[in-house]
Write a structure and sequence with these properties.
four-stranded mixed β-sheet, alpha+beta, 4 strands, 16% strand, single chain, 226 residues, 7 helices
Amino acid sequence: MALNRFPFRVAAVAILAGLLAGCANKDKLATGSIPDDYRTRHPIVIAEGERTIDIPVASGDTRLTQGTRDVIRGFAAEYRNASSGVIQIMLPRGSVNSHAAQIVRKEIRRLLAATGVSPKKILETSYDAGATGDAAPIRLSYVAITAQTAPCGEWPEDVTLNTLENRNYYNFGCASQSNLAAQIANPTDLIGPRQMSPIDAEQRGEVIKTWRGTDTDDGGTTIVFN
């Protein structure tokens, strides 16, 4: 009877080894068969880009609202930090609010100058708004170095094939890379670190004094750090 059990034991071990090997191959397929990286497909690069903002103007407006003035000041502050070129005031031509745009453009110029933009850097142009009967905005724009990625939304391959081969599709990760690039305040930080600011000797002395346990609170009690 013992001799009859031996083949069954050998068969059970062989089956168990086959199952484990199948699991190992499955894990290898799931984790090791992704040859591409979304950071390589959609890299963040430093390039020249146009930054714009549209200022809505109604056909009966004779001045800017307080909220609009705050938006223009913020845009001018970003321009001063990011660019040394010209800033354009693009006025609509042929729209129902073109006359109102001509009136408020003077206030826009004054706001830009008051925020620190040199009048020599302010350039007025116009664009054809068409005879659609709609109110067209005044567009402010300037060119600056920005961190950006290529446009998203490309689908050059069949998604079902990528699923069968356990590969991520081409557009995967593009939106995340674009959002990350948009959050970079200073694109030159991607090139290298900034120069360190000078050491605040007074603040350093206060920190050292506190850690030595010689500082006291308002009640006169000595603070001791263990």
